Amino acid sequence: MRAALRSDNAQARSAFLELFLHQSLLGGGYRVLIHPEVPRSSHRPDFLVQSDAGAFYVEAIVPGTSKAQQARASREADLLAALDQVGDPNFLLVTVDIQQSLHSAPGANFRQQIRDWLATLDPDQVDLAGLPTLTLVRGDWSVTIEAWPRRERSRGEKTRSIGMYAHAPAEFIDDGRKLVAALKSKASRYGDLDAPFVIAVGMYTFDEDDEDLHNALYGSTAWVVDEPGPDGRSETRGIRNHDGYFGSPAGWRNRRVSGVLVVDQLSLHDPTRARVTLWPHPDPLHPLPPESLFPGTVREWDGEKVAKRAGRDVRTLLGLPESWPEGDPWKWSAERTCSVD
Fold this sequence. Notes:
By secondary structure, the chain is α+β, with helices and mostly antiparallel strands. It has seven helices and 18 strands. The strands form five sheets. An eight-stranded mixed β-sheet has the order 1-2-3-8-13-14-15-16, with helices on both faces.
């Protein structure tokens, strides 16, 4: 656990999620067995949670990026860091396109080529409607940039060189897809368990109303336009497709998973700010205990819709006072060193 917390962000987040869940469950009065043996499987879930009312298993996961994606991001970061050090006093750079190789970027070589090219340009003669463009190619690497003249009052200052990152395409963020992928990776790992099974997923979403997660579990939203009536008007009504992880009332799916616990925006500096939501399965093989088990809120199927109710208080479970964190905030001194009054 200590090694994971000292490792990269993905491992640190996963380890801290386990610590957060473990302490919350202990604070709720449960007995927690770490990595219990389970029947008919050599794998072990993170926790077996026990109380006088029964027991349930908990498995935690934080969706991360693949090693290939991490390597690609690292190569691009190294390249951008090199380009940001061009240091031309008259121009900023706009990254228009970057095509990668599997090898390290020739950052120093590209940087010198850009310096030589910028030295041939006059910032007062550049037409902003058609910026000068340069494409650099070496091996499988290809980088296209534009030169944006600095404002006259800012010229002569060798500050950071990249003024705009425009090489990455815009894309829709689908947090629900990440959630379902994480659930599929864990749902059948332990076979048919003899008790309720909760998968806790650490997320860092952009969705404040849980709509993506709702759609992922209960089905995406679609609109039906009825045939025009006698008055020529058509009625439009919203329905849910049958593509949710839980399925639909006509046929619930993935019933081994008794509930999905989403722990969103869990931070090491203040775990009380995490948005925690338990989504119990509408028809699980092993139902969860009726009492509130976790901090945050509960979003459960009431027979017609998903209703919301309060879970347990996170500060109470973690043994923190209502006013936590206490004391004066940290302040920056004139020398930019951190001090406390």
